[in-house]
Design goal:
This protein is of the alpha/beta class. The chain is built from 10 helices and 14 strands. Strands 6-7-8-3-9-10 form a 6-stranded mixed beta sheet, with helices on both faces. It has a 4-stranded antiparallel beta sheet with strand order 2-1-4-5. The structure holds adenosine-5'-triphosphate. The site of adenosine-5'-triphosphate has 12 residues, from helix 1.
Length: 308
Amino acid sequence: MSNVLSVSGLSKTYDSGFQALKNIDLEIEKGELFALLGPNGAGKTTLIGIICGIVNPTTGTVIVDGHDIISDYRAARSKIGLVPQELSTDAFETVWATVSFSRGLFGKKPDPAHLERVLRDLSLWEKRNSKIITLSGGMKRRVLIAKALSHEPEILFLDEPTAGVDVELRRDMWRLISSLRETGVTVILTTHYIEEAEEMADRVGVINHGEIVLVEEKKELMRKLGRKQLRLCLQHPLDAVPESLASYELELSADGSYLTYTYETAQNRKGITSLLHDLTEAGIRFSDIETRESTLEEIFVSLVHEAA
Ligand SMILES: Nc1ncnc2c1ncn2[C@@H]1O[C@H](COP(=O)(O)OP(=O)(O)OP(=O)(O)O)[C@@H](O)[C@H]1O
């Protein structure tokens, strides 16, 4: 397993005395798509800012593809493409000029063929001679991505790539991000849209109050997402769950009036049918049944809440 980014013991205390990051450890594998989730003010932008050399860390180290971000700044920075939320400069430049300039900033030799590929992939080729100020909001977003890809980075950071964009552009962005990943580029994105993480990420990290509270494979999160609960309201309270039902790992409420069965959606129906059969066999009658499902959103909110 090769890590393209290694963050260890990273902390940031701003001059105001506010500690925005607390002892962050994070390993990102080459070629993965990692989604960093967190509520407003959690520290996402600070973390990305440090990795990209915009913010100085207070303690800790960051190694980008073998290069320390402080002692080997130039090499580390050239491995990274950053797509910020907003385009702040270059309004009167053409698309082509701004993208060429971005490449030059990283000391890369001009490569018009590469820039043409990037602009074509982003449906910007026809607009190459247009001034940025004349482009729509969606096109400007595409320019930000083109700039970030101009110097052929190994790692692409996207900060809230789809915040405030329409559905069509969001779909286009998702497609583009997936295809980048296929070319071996490591993609790290921050997002408020859990759906986005769910759709695209290999792994998900949750940051809250400057701490990483969870890093997990998306499939594992989906397993949690797929968990359902069946709650049976009993006609007669029980003192204990009968031995014959032990395999279902039922939970009996403190007053003995409810049984809760937690199961994976993938194996659902058969389990429920046999549970209901075995309950009848055991002479247990119930007056009501409720089901509920935990969503990724709920998991996220509860994680963020726990750490509060
Ligand atoms: N220059 C600064 N001086 C003092 N505090 C700062 C500075 N920059 C950020 N902070 C604080 O650090 C915390 C983390 O901010 P950061 O921008 O990293 O969060 P975020 O997770 O990116 O939030 P959002 O999703 O709202 O962009 C916030 O409480 C913010 O107010």
